[in-house]
Amino acid sequence: MRDASALQRLRHIGVAATESRALRAAALAEIGRAVPFDACVWLLTDPETSVGMSPLAWVPPSLMPELPRLIRLKYLTPVNRWTALSGAARLDAPETSLVWRELLHAHGVTDVASLAFRDRYGCWAFLDLWRLGGTFTDGELAFLDDVASLLTTHLRRCVAGCFQTEDRGTLEPGPVMLLLDAGLNVLGQTPRTGDYLARLLPDADPQPIPAAAYNVAAQLVAVENGVDAGPALARMHLAGGRWLTMRAARLGPTFDQDAQIAVTLEDSSLPDRTAVFARACGLTARETELLQQLTTGADTRTVATRMFLSENTVQDHLKSIFDKTGTRSRRALLSRAAGTG
Question: What is the mean pLDDT of residues 25-31?
Answer without folding.
Answer: 97
